[in-house]
Amino acid sequence: MKRIHFILIFLCPFLLFSQSKKGFKIPDSLKNKSTQYIYNAYRDAYQIDNEQAEFYANVILSKGKKDNNKDLLYDGYYKIARIKNLKGENGHPYADSLIALVKNKTYKNFPSNAYIIKGILYNNEGKYKDALDQYSIALKYSPKDDQEFFYRIKLLIGILKTATEEYKEALPLFKEYYEYQKAKIGTRHEDKGAYIGSIFSLANIFAKCEQYGKSNELIALGIKECKKYKIYSQYNYLIMLKGINNYYLKNLPLSLRYLQSAERLLRKNKDYSNLSILYYFIGKVKHESHLEDEAIRYLIQSDSISYAIQDYSPVSRDGYEIIIDYYKKKGDIKNQLKYINQLIYADSAIAKTQKNLSKEIFKKYDTALLIKEKEGLIKTLNNRNSIYIWFILFLIICSGLFINIIIENRKKIKKYEKHAKELLEKMDNRKIIITENEPFNAPKQDEVENKNHISSHPKFQNIIQKIEIFEKNHSFLRKNITLDSLSKEFDTNRDYLSRLINELKGKNFTQYLNELRINYIVSELKTNEKMRKYTIAAISEEIGFNNSETFTNAFKKITGTLPSYYIKLLNEEN
């Protein structure tokens, strides 16, 4: 999946401005062009032709130096740092110059962005704690009522939670960011590039959550919006993600088509991190299409890039296992050993990065975000002079939640009590509560004619008799009964036994065994007062379940109530 690519001593002004590209000069053809023209050219090239985008960012920076325009200096440093990050090059000098420019000043109302780009650089290097520290500083400098920054911070937290594989927690953060950007479209605050980026981010996290259908719907929307607004910075990543999704959906030809389509721009933009992952997935598609030689070629390319840029992804680890197995089959010991060493090296690099992925690092940052939210609420309440209303509202919400919990618990209790009473009535009226111990009637004529039904075959009558004895003798109460163990006991094939139970009982083996046991204990508890004094764990042990949780779940699924409520009702009745 796409990885998100979005010393500090201020000695004197010339040091601050010394980070522009050495010897860079604005071409004569651009000297008389407007600043807006340069900005538009940068926007059109960004993430499509990053070399060209960096060129225009240097033009902006040079204009800022020449005219002593701090707005242009700010944007120049910021844009070059972003491009360097995308190209896997060192963007820190530009981020440091940007921080020096805005340090201790509320310059341009965006000092926080300087720390964000520094954090993004650290994030892309796998230095997650350092990234978190920069985001925390950015949060401190952010304007109190800046909604744009507030949602951007949520996006960055979502990215960090994705890095720690907390996908379900990251999903609502990406949803909120998408809804925020979507709501701005058509207003004077719209940011079409950020809106399309939010579509990709949400599609990506849905894919991480294995919701590939929803991910593909968003990809289709993203591609449509790219074409509508003529903004193609995310287009290639949407195409790549579509290829990866189709791999997991096992649409291999379609997956290959999308992945190969994304390759050209990744190479052009020197996006080697994503190119390594793309080659891994092409290799996997080839491998599962039984094109082994081609698969190995792509998997080796993936490894070569990862080694060159020292960036390994856990997702591509099994690619090494495929390469090792390939050379093992060929008897090529030299290459087999080579890629065993490569796998060990990759594991070491991944482990080193993963050490920074402790979930504890979010405590500090999540707390900072909560403080930010609290400050916003307090400001709103102060503006309305409603501290008292806030207190009342808090009490109402807490009371409502408490009452709701009580109501829901009472509903559950009533539901369980109702099902327990119905269960007792069925037992009193000698009604069968589950389809257990059904007679083994001869199959109907149309079943006999069906060759797929094995229960009508004479050679299986002996097994049917053994099943009847198994039920009659309550042998199902033994522990650790499995389809394999019972088929050996009946001296038959496990598949035949499974099919017989399915045809005659209409259920699989696990359902059949559970229902036998639950039906037995429902009846036994009705008549055996001593057993009603057992603990749930003891009862589950008595009838062959491995633990009380499995027994309780099976009892609830079959009867609609809990064993504790059923026993309670039996005791009250007596």
UniProtKB/TrEMBL annotation:
UniProt xrefs under SMART domains: HTH_ARAC, TPR
UniProt xrefs under InterPro entries: Homeodomain-like_sf, HTH_AraC, TPR-like_helical_dom_sf, TPR_rpt
Keyword field contains Cell division: no
Protein name according to UniProt: HTH araC/xylS-type domain-containing protein
Keyword entries, A-Z: DNA-binding, Membrane, Transcription, Transcription regulation, Transmembrane, Transmembrane helix
Domain HTH araC/xylS-type: 461-569
Transmembrane region(s): 387-407
GO terms assigned for molecular function: DNA-binding transcription factor activity; sequence-specific DNA binding
Matching Pfam families: HTH_18
